[in-house]
Design goal:
Number of strands: 10
Mean pLDDT: 94
CATH topology of the largest domain: Rossmann fold
Order of helices and strands: EHEHEHEHEHHEHHEHEHEHE
Helix content: 40-55%
Number of domains: 2
Length: 264
């Protein structure tokens, strides 16, 4: 297999990275994709950086063994904890990470108040602090950790009353502070856009970075002269949790009914 025909490896602590995979599939339909949901260890946001780095290395080794030509860390927390180490370990591997959309949100706000919905791990990271220093010095940023939301999305409960109630409790304080732009700072959260749109005024912008990650992947593949020419093969999925749970939510989150293998 030529490098251009080799697949792109994508992973997240769970199913959230499927929102990024969806953007990659839309922009780069000729790329074959591999996806690992580390659902047996979700959420990363409550784990130590050392633990997360250990998982990221293990998953990367698995994806490389499957022939991956590039890697997408479709997880803000994993990127903050492990991207630097992975780039050091694999200097010739194109690696794309995630970061909360602070820059576009700071540019978009009209009130000067930006809200951030994210995991505890992302909000505590030095990477997030650096983003605020670099791009948000002239706006007010209000952060909101969202424990429990990831688990709702993992279960495919995108419109459940309990999910709505939890999301409302996190969004209400941000709106009360005058936020007109909300950063979806976890790759799981774009799947809640329809529900969020029903909970916030139409004047409030919802910002995430999935499409930007897809564009960065495209640039790196072109730079390394390995962009796929198709046809893309069916996406391969693995889960470190119960494969059947991922198999059940794939049609809900991605309109896909692919097979899921177990990964430890």
């Amino acid at each position: 297999m030529s490098q251009s025909q080799a697949p792109v490896g994508i992973f997240d602590s769970g199913v959230g990275g499927l929102s990024v995979l969806r953007e990659i599939r839309q922009l780069l339909p000729n790329e074959s994709l591999l996806y690992v949901a580390d659902s047996g260890h979700v959420p990363y946001g409550e784990k130590s950086p050392e633990y997360i780095r250990e998982r990221c290395v293990r998953i990367t080794e698995h994806l490389l063994a499957q022939g991956a030509k590039a890697l997408v860390l479709a997880c803000n927390t994993a990127t903050a904890a492990a991207a630097a180490e992975l780039r050091e370990r694999y200097p010739n591997l194109p690696i794309v990470g995630m970061e909360p959309a602070v820059k576009p949100a700071a540019a978009a706000t009209r009130t000067g108040v930006v809200g951030v919905l994210a995991t505890t791990g992302t909000l505590k990271s030095a990477r997030f602090a650096a983003l605020l220093d670099r791009f948000a010095s002239d706006v007010r940023v209000i952060t909101q950790p969202c424990p429990g939301l990831v688990e709702c999305i993992e279960a495919g409960e995108l419109q459940a009353p309990a999910t709505r109630e939890l999301l409302q409790s996190y969004v209400a304080p941000l709106l009360a502070e005058g936020c007109d732009t909300l950063i979806l700072g976890c790759t799981h959260y774009p799947f809640l856009r329809p529900l969020l749109s029903a909970l916030v005024p139409a004047s409030v912008s919802l910002v995430d970075t999935g499409a930007a990650v897809a564009r960065q992947l495209q640039r790196l593949l072109q730079q390394h002269d390995v962009q796929g020419v198709g046809p893309a093969r069916p996406t391969c999925y693995w889960s470190s949790g119960e494969p059947e749970r991922l198999r059940k939510v794939l049609p809900i989150l991605l309109e896909d009914d692919g097979e899921v293998a177990f990964f430890n």
